[in-house]
Structure prediction request, 277 residues.
Amino acid sequence: MDKTKILAITAFVAILSACGSDNGSLPELVKSYPNSISPFDTLVVKFKSELIDLDKLDTINNIILNQGKRWIKGKAKGKELRFIGTNTTPGGLNYFEEGANDSIEFKKIKNADNYEIKDRLVFYFSTLRLLDSEPNDSKSYANEIDLEKAKKEDGITFAGVLDHKIGATESGQSIFDMDDYYMLKLKAADTVSITVTNREDLSLIAKGPSGTTDTTFQAVKGKSNVFKYIVGLKYLLEDPTLSASVSVPFYINVTDNATTSPPNPYTIRIKVMEYKK
Prediction:
């Protein structure tokens, strides 16, 4: 065999060998910036390939966290890493800082192809505001919803929690968080679109200015429940001094009766469409 053929075969084998050793790619994030999450959510960071040796990682050299976050260290391999907030509600529910823009940095993590993150990967996320501010268990202490934000195209979205049993008095009487009240000022024929997602079943009760029940909506756990409420003229009968053209306070009462269950976090999106003649 002449020298030219030997060189050609050698080069061809080298090319095949190189292709065979490069059967994979660097670890990559599926998404580096998700939509805003509830502070009560478990944050799931997804990778495109399976990661290995996760049990050997630490939060100093590999997973860089700011304050207020904790890595849930699970199995030794997988495509997902999970995080929760380190703040806790009186009922014991973990949560991230509310209304924050934050990030998590990943370094020197290998995937199943034996490739390691080059330099670093950064996962960015933001959290919803917590409008639920205790005590708000009656209309007298209702948290007010920003009407101007609620009238925008995307409405206003916020988080809250029914914390259930949250402690006891000095005499031993149990203290519960079973009701959250929110208030916004509406006029006759205004339409309110309510979208709620919750961990356990709950009820949303629309109440007029006097606090009497107008409409009750049932929200099923784990679903994005959508309801519409149109302000009628019933409130004029409750208070004859009011006018249909005047904005008056209406209330949304979020409630459940699961006194022995774990906390029930929820998110609510409020969109108000004003009636125009």
